[in-house]
């Protein structure tokens, strides 16, 4: 089952990469603000149904893909 | 207007990070395969409507956020 995991910094955590990108975009004339950078992982899970896939994805995201102290995860199961 | 840009490696491009994560997940007992790693950017655009925001986001994604030779972008405009 195809799963997408989005890993984003928690709201209070500083994001120097996002800030740098925001400055670069401003310098190029784009009216962009509040830029935040994160990671996306697409994977295939051998799960019986979407609920099991989501539970597995949440667990492995917190164990391997994200640092739960600083990051939060969003899991999307595709069909 | 809030916009999310997902930047993923194109299908043919090797992804050593995704492969390493796939091996790590396998070692931990997860039945995960085809792991691909990418980037996600959340930003606020000062655009009149969703269509303008999407056009701006696609343009800045190809100019700043992604390398169009190796990566492809997905743009999601929120409300």
Helix content of chain A: 25-40%
Distance between the termini of chain A: 7 Å
* Main β sheet profile of chain A: 3 strands, antiparallel
Helix/strand-derived category of chain A reads: alpha+beta
- Uncertain residue ranges of chain A: none
User: Which two chains share the most extensive interface?
Assistant: A-B, 32 and 32 residues
As an assembly, this protein is homodimer
Mean pLDDT of chain A: 96
- Beta-strand proportion of chain A: 35-45%
Q: List how many beta strands of chain A DSSP finds.
A: 3
Counted by DSSP, the helix tally of chain A is: 2
Shape of chain A: elongated
Q: What does the radius of gyration of chain A come to?
A: 15 Å
* SSE sequence of chain A, one letter per element: EHEHE
Strands ordered across the widest β-sheet of chain A: 2-1-3
Explain this structure to me?
2 copies of one chain form a homodimer. Chain A has 79 residues and is an alpha+beta fold. In chain A, 35% of the residues lie in helices and 38% in strands. Chain A has 2 helices and 3 strands, in the order βαβαβ. In chain A, strands 2-1-3 form a 3-stranded antiparallel sheet. The longest helix of chain A has 16 residues, at 50-65. Chain A starts with a strand and ends with a strand. The model of chain A has no long low-confidence stretch (mean pLDDT 96). Strand 2 of chain A pairs antiparallel with strand 2 (32-45) of chain B.
